[in-house]
Each structure stands twice: as C-alpha cells, then as structure tokens.
Design brief:
This protein is α/β, with parallel strands linked by helices. Helices cover 52% and strands 12% of the residues. The protein binds one RNA strand through α2, α6, β10, α12 and β17.
Length: 586
RNA sequence: GCGCCUGUGGCUCAACCGGAUAGAGCAUCGGCCUUCUAAGCCGAGGGUUGCAGGUUCGAGUCCUGCCAGGCGCGCCA
C-alpha cells in the first residue's frame, strides 16, 4: 500500500504539471510514511511541504490542489489535509480484510517479500578466533547477525551466512602451547605458566583430556623447556618474546607431528564448542571458511595480485604496501612483510576478493566495536578492487557492558574471567538472551545486567510477546469446551462488525507488518521488528482485557476470532525471524 | 593527540532517508480477577533530547565548537 500510494502521488503530480496546474519542477524525494498519530489516519505524505519552497505557495494550498486531483484508490477510505500540509490517507475497513485473507493464505510464509529479488547476499558475523569459547560479547553479534540474515532471507534475498575461522595465526599457536604447558603441569612438571598464555579453565579441561587420550606421550624434560627462554614480563622481560620462544621450543621438543596433534586437537574441540554454542543459540551457518583454506588454495596470493593490478601498491623497506590513503584511510598498510610473510590484512583483502568472486552482490560484514578501526582500510580495499562501495556494509556492534547487580564484570579471554555465551544461555535462556540483544540497535552501547536479566526474566519483553501468542492459542483450545466453533470464512464475511477502537488498533498494527519487514531489512535494523512485535502484543493484550472472544453472537465471534488468529500468525512469523521460540502455552 | 560510536524522564531503551503534541518498559503511586491464562489490563506523576551556536517552513535526527563515556589508532591477529 505504501509504495502504491507513493506511485499514485507521483503520477498525480506529474499529470498536474502537464496540465500546468503545478509548475514543472525537478524530481523531488517525497515520502509516504506511517502516521505516528492515528488521528492523522494511516499514511502521511509530505510532498506539499517539500514543494512549498520551490513553488512559493503555502504548503496547505499545494496539498489541496494535489488532494483534489487524486483518484481515490481502492482500499483508501479517506484523504485529508492536516497540520502544516500533510496529505493523510485513511485505510478502508476492506483493506484490512484483504490483508487478513492474505495472512491466512500465506500462513507461515506471510511477510516473505520479493524486494531482495533473490540477490545473493554474504553475511559474515561473529568470526571469533577459535582460541576459547564464545563469550557474551560475541552473543550480541550472533543475535544481531543471525536476525539480520533471517530478516534478509524473508525479504527475498538469497542469504549466505559465513563464519571466518581464524585458524592460521599466532594466537592459535599460543593456544596450542598453553594446552601443552597445562598438560605438562598435570604430568607433575614444574611449570611457570606464561603471563600471555590462555588461562581459562577450558585450557585445563583440554589438557586433562589430552592426558587421558595420550598419557605421557608429550612429556619432555623441564630443563630443556625453559633453558635460554627470554624472561616473562613478571620477571622483568617481555611477555610476547617469552611466549613466542616457548612456542618455538614446543615445536622443537615435540616435533612437527606431535605438535600438530596438540594444535589440531585444541582447534577442533574449541571450534566444535563454538559451533555447538551458536547452534543452541539458534544461529547456523552455511559455511565455516577457514584462513587455512585461503592459504592452501593460494587465495592470498591471488588477492594481493589483484590489488597490485590496481596500481595502488608499492614496495618500501622490503615490504609490499597498499596505498589505502588513496581511498581515505589515514595511513598506508603493509600486505607482505619484510620477512616475506603476509599480514592479517592481506588475508582479509584476499577473503573479501574471494567473497566478491563467489558472486555475492551484497557483502555484509558484522564487526565488533573493537575492530571498527579496521573499517576504513577495508572500505579502501573494496573501492580499489572496483567493488561498488554501496554493496558493502559493515555494521558495528557495540559492546555490552556486563553487570552483576551494580558490579561491572571485567572480561578478558586471556585472563579467563569472562562469562561465556553458554553460561548466558543456561542462565537466562536462549529466547530472552536473543531478544534482549536484538531489541537494542547495534551501534547503541548497552548495559547487560546478568542478575537483572535472570531475576526479571518474567518481566522480559520476550515473555510478553510469547504470552500474547500463547493466550490466543488458549482461546482457540477452549472453543470446543464451550461447544463453539470458528469459521474463518464467516469471520471474514462479518469483518465489518469489527468497529471497536481496540479492534481497529490491532488491525492497524497487523497491517503494518509488511512495511516493518521491508524497512528493517532495508536498513539492516532487526531491532525495529522486535519493537514492533512488542507493540503488536500490546494491542492484543489490551483487546483481550477489553472484550470477550468466545461470545454467543456467532457473527461477531467469528469476526473476532479471525482477527486474533491473524494476530497470532503475525506474532509467530515475527518471532521466528528473531530466533525466538513460539510457545502455544506457557 | 587523531578517528569511530554514544549521550533522550530515577533506570534501560524507541522514534522508519529532517515532519504533526518526543514514545515504551522497569521503578513509584492509585484502580481491575465468581468472566477466554493477572506472565495481563486501565489510570497518574515524571522531559529545556549533554551544553552553545548554525542550516530551514520544520531539528532528538543535519553542520560547527565544546563537555562526558565507550572503543580503536602495529610489518599483532
């Protein structure tokens, strides 16, 4: 309806210009939007306000000329002019009936749109290094990315969810070495655990399993281990040098084969854990794309070559640089180091080139706030490679500051003191956790009080929405008890009986679902859908308290049941997109 | 020092490419269950949208400068 009205206004103004009733003007970007206040009808158009200046007449006057010449379309009951010069449209009752019919026809597919035109979209999110379990910070990216992907899918895009597995870097070696050192501790060797190693309990558990599976196979002499290793930070040394030396020593003492066993073992178990956690959070991927794969397939070389071809690369002090400052970055970036090794950045160049080459027309890369400094150089790469910058979006998900009551919870994977996503799911539940995250727009910093989320779980908006759905189910369950029946067709036939303000409010809300899907998908803002569902549930609960559904008047009963059945369907479809379960009873 | 994000009732947050009287929830106070689930509903109080300018018919939204908080500024990943 929104786009139909937009087209209608456009045509009307055009024809008025041809008849010289309005001066010819440059094309103008006017809007049709949902009226915030229901006294203003359902839709409002601001075109007269925008034309006023160019034409030099009061906006109301222009609005009247336009309104007078609009051929009132089907489904519109009233056109009026209000306020400073808005043209307001009020939907006819019959328009609502048609929407309800469509809801029943399409059922769980209601809300699926074609605006995406089946265009392939690549959505990358979370992509945390597999050096430890996901924590609550990743949870926000997972909830947002998952909902966005599902939203785009519903909007008609062909969505590909991908997790970039950073499994070839130094951090992974620190992990392997950490596991091995814990293993040696368990085998009663005198180990001073490095300050820069991974200290989480999960490393202990991995080491324990390693002992169980391989017994003493990886034990070495303690003297060999620490001899000639540069001092750790607490001893006045450098923690980076210390750990790097230990990694080298581990490879040397264990030999390639045994070292790889530990390395792969740690990586696989942790990655499996991440997959499991995300799966139980309702987030699944089409592909887990590993950095290792980029390397082995020569993609990094390809990506760098591609960038070189653009002529924006140069060599200096033995390294290969990308002149990202040509594209707005604040400094140039190294691709290939002096020692011949590629940088992380080079891998990312290759990865994005690879995404593009796989045929994705839109690339969405959800990043945590700690990586936002990376955006300018990524954008520079996109531009240099000749990819349309508008097809590349990098939503930044801000941190959630964790609280336990009034106490701030410090998080650090290294120190091991953090709340895992797993713990969060176990504590507050998948539904509450996901909805809580999704309700906030990603760029908004948010406070997450674990205690409150737990204690007040019954006050969480998610239950409020789910309850609305369960209540409707309950009403229908009781039909037979009261020896009543519901005939949908009778309900639609008696649709005009729905004249109560509560009923109109609910209808209005239901009728805007499609637009919410479209807008939130277009803007990459799933939180809009969350807020909408809250509001829809609100209208339903008010209606529920004000009127009876299971009443003697058969015509009215059918009409009302038809209305709430439609509400139920919309709530279910919306929650589905957000990854929240849809209970039939609570 | 530079860059990005944020600043909206006591608290947590909305406000759909700038629109009409800035909206919800929590908390507080007052009402509503012999009636379809009270995990609900109805009502009340509570605001100079961080501050100061600017742009225009119109600014929470855009621009400039401050203030405050978060994050980032490696040939690390």
């Amino acid at each position: 309806m929104k786009s139909a009205l937009h087209e209608l206004i456009k045509q009307t103004v055009f024809s008025l210009q041809e008849q010289d009733k309005l001066p010819a003007l440059q094309s103008i970007q006017f809007q049709i939007e949902r009226a915030r206040n229901k006294q203003h009808g359902d839709y409002a158009c601001n075109i007269a306000l925008l034309l006023a200046k160019q034409i030099g007449k009061p906006p109301r006057e222009i609005a009247e000329v336009i309104a007078k010449h609009i051929q009132k379309p089907e489904g519109i009951a009233d056109i009026s002019i209000a306020g400073p010069g808005f043209i307001n449209f009020t939907l006819a009752q019959d328009a609502y009936r048609l929407i309800l019919e469509e809801i029943f026809t399409k059922a769980d597919k209601y809300g699926y749109l074609t605006v995406g035109a089946n265009q392939p979209v690549h959505v990358e999110f979370v992509s945390a290094n597999p050096t430890g379990p996901l924590h609550v910070g990743h949870g926000r990216s997972a909830a947002f990315g998952g909902a966005l992907a599902d939203l785009l899918n519903v909007a008609g895009y062909q969505v590909h969810r991908e997790y970039y597995v950073n499994d070839a870097g130094r951090q992974m070696h620190i992990l392997a070495t950490s596991i091995w050192l814990r293993y040696l501790e368990l085998c009663d060797l005198p180990i001073t655990f490095p300050s820069n190693a991974y200290k989480g309990d999960y490393v202990f558990n991995l080491a324990k399993d390693l002992v169980a599976d391989h017994q003493q196979k990886f034990v070495v002499q303690a003297d060999d281990l620490f001899t000639n290793i540069p001092a750790d930070e607490p001893d006045g040394g450098d923690k980076e040098q210390h750990i790097d030396a230990l990694i080298d020593r581990a490879k040397q003492l264990l030999g390639t084969e045994n070292y790889d066993i530990i390395f792969t073992y740690g990586k696989d178990i942790i990655l499996d854990g991440i997959k499991y956690d995300l799966h139980s959070f309702g987030v699944d991927y089409q592909e887990w794309f590993s950095e290792d794969k980029l390397l082995k397939h020569g993609f990094i070389e390809q990506g760098v070559q591609q960038l070189k071809k653009t002529g924006h690369c140069y060599e200096r002090t033995g390294a290969l640089w990308f002149r990202s400052t040509d594209f707005g970055d604040d400094k140039d970036r190294v691709l290939i180091r002096e020692n011949g090794q590629h940088t992380y950045f080079a891998a990312d160049v290759a990865y994005h080139w690879n995404k593009f080459k796989r045929g994705f027309r839109q690339i969405i890369n959800v990043l945590g706030a700690d990586h936002h400094g990376y955006v300018p150089r990524l954008r520079a790469v996109i531009k240099a490679l000749g990819i349309d910058p508008d097809s590349f979006d990098v939503p930044i998900v801000q941190f959630a500051t964790l609280y336990r009551g009034k106490e701030k919870v410090q998080m650090s994977t290294r120190s091991g003191s953090f709340v895992t996503l797993r713990q969060l799911i176990d504590d507050v539940g998948k539904d509450a956790a996901r909805f809580f995250y999704i309700m906030r727009k990603p760029e908004q910093h948010m406070d997450f009080d674990l205690e409150l989320a737990k204690e007040q779980s019954t006050n969480n908006p998610v239950y409020y929405i789910q309850y609305a759905h369960a209540r409707i189910c309950s009403v229908f369950r009781q039909l037979s008890d009261k020896k009543m029946q519901w005939h949908k067709e009778q309900g639609l036939a008696n649709f005009a009986k729905l004249q109560e303000p509560h009923e109109i409010d609910l209808l209005r809300s239901i009728s805007s679902y499609i637009e919410i899907i479209e807008t939130s998908a277009r803007n990459h803002e799933p939180h809009m859908l969350a807020h909408y569902l809250r509001e829809l549930a609100d209208y339903f609960h008010s209606y529920y308290n004000a009127h009876q559904f299971l009443i003697a008047d058969e015509d009215l009963r059918n009409a009302r049941l038809t209305l709430i059945a439609a509400a139920k369907q919309v709530i279910a479809n919306g929650l589905q997109i957000l990854g929240v379960s849809v209970p039939e009873e609570m």
